[in-house]
Design goal:
Helix 8 (371-386) runs antiparallel to helix 9. The chain is of the alpha+beta class. The protein has a 15-stranded mixed beta sheet that branches. The protein has 9 helices and 32 strands. Helices cover 18% and strands 35% of the residues. The protein is globular.
Length: 547
């Protein structure tokens, strides 16, 4: 890391006393607001909720209805009283500077043992009251396509410790590694930063980001249940256009977010001039320019360290001192030897107070994958499957969940294999013709030999697309066909129809007979792009497998 500039200034003209004021288009909100308060406190009226949002200088309130009758898993109070209040439209506030809308949290439902699912921007509040989360997520995505799905008070172990059955239940959100890799998670919610403890929201965010998942980091107070007041933990999101509830949650979908404990701090990051959540590309290993800005409210003495993180590890550590509040800005050159992500966090007077979402950097077209994290999630999902009995599911639900965990585990296995050196008898050919986002990567699980079992895999394909796996013993010399580049001979010996799952993954296990010895198979995946992706077709790179 090479530090190039540091500028410190107390900008009283642009910062009001008592609150850190972010740049234009950044609006703060609380993604976890309850009107049904904990500890037997009274239910807040809309007017009381608006008053509290204003009193705490919060612009956006994401109301989360939940099932208050934990003893009745059929949730009659939720479905009869609160579900009708979720309409997919904003709640009238009488003030255009404050917006709020009702969604729901799966708290008090049977499925909560797998994590407290949060839904922002739902069209309505009805859900199938099932015992685990995956089919509920699928239903929400089908019926509320513009809603955001995430996890409340999310956290994980900082270490790579294996989970015991007791720890699985203690984590609060054990299904999240499966739901995230299957494309079901848009955000994880930080409710605190535990610098000294073994479990922390950042640990979960880092481990998911380290396998290339694009997920926003947000903050929510869970008022009266975890924190006392709305906005004690908040999300700043950079909107496009006027502030509305939908423009604010669209900013979360785009990962243009930064989290703060309270209203006294705002933290921002630009990489090569691009904002938080951006996608950058480098032709090879190189260096990027990171610019960090920390705003502290005037009159709030603040000193500490701003840390630029690369893949969750500290790439640059920069001390600062704002004895009367103000703005601290630092610029640093950060090396990026492989595809990775950058974020920044700030400690204030010895405790972490703010953290941004990630900015993603692709190097030489490679996916962001760290083998250690992919292997870890494989082991976690296997541990969940081995201890499925702790969830007390009915036989059908248990069988369905086991199949879901197995599919997610296969995706992490493919990611782990991608991040490791290729087997000597396997080589990659050319580059992919991407569709929606980034490179499409062909891969292989297993060791090629006659009669052995191998699995051909594809990562980062267009989600839910249909297509074909083509394989032959003849290599095509990079021939363009309908906008893609084909690396497989014109007369493939095998054409297999395939369906991509919601996480952009597909696989096929061919039958390998003894007659294949001494030959090389060339394979490639071709897809018909779904609506919203550019072009008609997309394709993976090619893969050559020698037996």
């Amino acid at each position: 890391m090479r530090l190039t500039t540091i500028v410190v200034a107390a900008l009283a003209a642009s910062i009001s006393s008592g609150q850190a004021v972010p740049p234009p288009k950044w609006y703060d909100g609380d993604v976890h607001v309850h009107v049904q308060q904990c500890d037997d406190l009274a239910i807040l009226t809309d007017a009381e909720l608006v008053a509290e949002l204003k009193a705490n200088d919060v612009s956006v309130g994401c109301v989360q209805y939940w099932n208050p009758d934990h003893t009745d898993l059929s949730a009659p109070v939720y479905f009869n009283v609160f579900e009708p209040l979720i309409t997919g439209t904003e709640i009238f506030t009488g003030d255009p500077s404050v917006v709020m809308q009702a969604g729901f949290e799966l708290s008090g439902f049977h499925a909560q043992q797998f994590g407290h699912l949060q839904v922002l921007g739902a069209s309505d509040g009805w859900i199938p009251n099932l015992p685990y989360l995956a089919p509920i997520i699928a239903y929400i995505k089908q019926t509320s396509p513009y809603a955001l799905i995430g996890f409340a008070h999310a956290r994980w172990l900082k270490s790579y410790q294996q989970l015991t059955p007791a720890l699985i239940q203690h984590i609060w959100n054990p299904e999240i590694p499966a739901d995230a890799i299957m494309g079901g998670v848009s955000f994880v919610e930080a409710y605190m930063f535990d610098d000294a403890g073994a479990i922390d929201p950042r640990a979960l965010y880092y481990k998911l980001s380290n396998v290339g998942l694009r997920i926003a980091f947000v903050g929510g107070s869970d008022n009266s249940c975890i924190w006392d007041a709305i906005g004690d933990v908040r999300t700043y999101a950079r909107v496009e256009g006027p502030l509305t509830y939908q423009s604010w949650i669209r900013a979360i979908r785009a990962r243009r977010t930064t989290v703060s404990l309270g209203k006294d701090y705002f933290l921002n990051l630009e990489v090569n001039g691009q904002g938080i959540g951006s996608e950058l590309s480098l032709p090879g290993p190189g260096t990027v320019a990171a610019r960090v800005t920390l705003v502290a409210s005037i009159g709030m003495p603040s000193s500490g360290t701003v840390r630029v993180l690369r893949g969750g590890d500290v790439a640059a550590s920069i001390p600062y001192d704002l004895p009367a509040g103000g703005t601290f800005t630092a610029a640093a050159q950060v090396s990026v030897p492989e595809s990775d992500w950058l974020a920044v966090e700030a400690d204030v007077n010895g405790a972490t107070k703010a953290h941004t979402s990630a900015t993603y950097i692709t190097v030489a077209g490679k996916l962001i994958v760290k083998a250690k994290d992919a292997d870890y999630w494989v082991s976690i999902l296997q541990t969940m499957a081995d201890n499925i009995g702790v969830y007390n599911l009915d036989p059908q639900s248990e069988a369905e969940l086991l199949g879901y965990l197995e599919e997610a585990k296969a995706m992490y296995e493919a990611l782990a294999a991608y991040a490791k050196p290729l087997n000597a008898s396997v080589s990659k050919i050319g580059v992919s013709t991407p569709a929606c986002s980034g490179s499409i990567a062909a891969g292989l699980l297993g060791t090629p030999s006659a009669g052995a079992s191998i699995v051909l895999t594809c990562l980062n394909a267009p989600p839910n697309a249909s297509g074909y796996l083509l394989a032959t013993t003849e290599q095509n010399q990079s021939m363009p066909i309908n906008g893609i580049v084909s690396y497989v001979g014109m007369h493939p010996a095998m054409v297999v129809p395939v369906a991509v799952n919601a996480g952009g993954f597909c696989q096929y296990e061919p039958i390998i007979g003894s007659g294949i010895a001494g030959k090389t198979i060339y394979a490639q995946w071709i897809f018909v792009n779904p609506q919203g992706c550019g072009g008609l077709l997309s394709s993976s790179d090619g893969i050559a497998v020698s037996f």
